Amino acid sequence: MRTERDYEVLTNEAGGVPIKAWTVGVPFEDEAKKQLRAMAALPFVHKWVAVMPDVHRGFGATVGSVVATAGAVIPAAVGVDIGCGMIAVRTTLRAEQLPDLLGGVRSAIERAVPHGRTDNGGRNDRGAWREAPAAHREAWGRLKPGYDAILEKHPRLGRGPDLGHLGTLGTGNHFIEVCLDEADHVWVMLHSGSRGVGNRIGSHFIELAKEDMRRFFIQLPEADLAYLPEGSEHFEDYLRAVGWAQEYAATNRELMLRSTVEALQASGELPEFSLTQAAVNCHHNYVSREHHYGKNVLVTRKGAVRAREGDLGIIPGSMGARSYIVRGKGNAESFHSCSHGAGRVMSREAAKRRFTLEDHARATEGIECRKDADVIDETPGAYKPIDAVMQAQASLVDVVHTLRQVVCVKG
């Protein structure tokens, strides 16, 4: 690996396109490099694979990767949390207007937005609506025609929650936060995606792609890199379904933000407030039709945010670490992309073995959040240092606001 300007270049003994990695000064695991080399060897990858500083091995494809493809799409390169992303908005509140004890603020959010998962996702799942609110049913009315069109050809995708998950948080690294910026303005920020319906769409088309590879005797370095060629039976179906899931995910975030703000306004914990600007709402697991280096391509960002010149994006840190509102610089070599967060430095199981409840309590001191064993895998030490991640991508984005959380809700 050699360093060229502000990124590193990985050679690929198996051939294929180069790998340009904005990883100077941050950990870059060998398993992630192996995954990336397998992807870079595919014949339809355009120019190179771009790697963001939050890179780490993922299921199917590498988190923190940006791949432009011509004539094919790789469903696992998007993954199953289709359209996962961030939304944030600044309020008229200031830090000094927050109560000294923030437990009531956290409780108001937890009551307003279903989060977590119980009953194995069944009828009594606390993370889904039993009766969705009117605004959610109205939003679902706009989404449902597209969903029904997808189900006409792929009816098995309808076997699970859809409206019941709209406007809900989920589990894992999804969160809702109240944050303060560098001027002590209060922000609301959250992270979630397309929930169960997006998972079904992603899983279904990953398996269809694998079936196609077996049917046509196509051998791949990694089975999860199975692809759908343009013109094949499922290519357009997948793009239509993934596009719909991305719309569902963006709507999911908008509804949760609305529910959170309304809950805070009605909580009795805060003075009257309003919002001061349009929300920043951005995907970081998705496919987009774009034009790069003279060619129309499909750009798949898995754990990466689009950062064209002037684009606003969100790069969250871990629980207890800073987050950033950023403006893209339009760096062409990154396919106009930046990282989607700090990026894991160890697996969830490794984090559970490594850290104690006392470690987690120290790392999240001063933040109103869960401090129990079920969130140890999300403790700050399980992630890369966000300062190093931001330094590594200084040529990709400018920092507009620096946020520190004071309340964090997790499923």
TrEMBL record:
One of its GO terms (biological process) is DNA repair. GMP binds at residues 173-177, 284-285, 316-319, 323, 340-343, 410. It comes from the Bacteria. Mn(2+) 2 binds at H191, H284. Binds 2 manganese ions per subunit. Its EC number is 6.5.1.8. InterPro entries: RtcB, RtcB-like, RtcB-like_sf. The active site is at H340 (gmp-histidine intermediate). It catalyses: a 3'-end 3'-phospho-ribonucleotide-RNA + a 5'-end dephospho-ribonucleoside-RNA + GTP = a ribonucleotidyl-ribonucleotide-RNA + GMP + diphosphate. Its cofactor is Mn(2+). Keywords: GTP-binding, Ligase, Manganese, Metal-binding, Nucleotide-binding, RNA repair. Mn(2+) 1 binds at D81, H174. The keyword Oxidoreductase does not apply. GO terms for molecular function: DNA ligase activity; GTP binding; manganese ion binding; RNA ligase (GTP) activity. SUPFAM superfamilies: Hypothetical protein PH1602 (SSF103365). Pfam families: RtcB. This is 3'-phosphate/5'-hydroxy nucleic acid ligase.
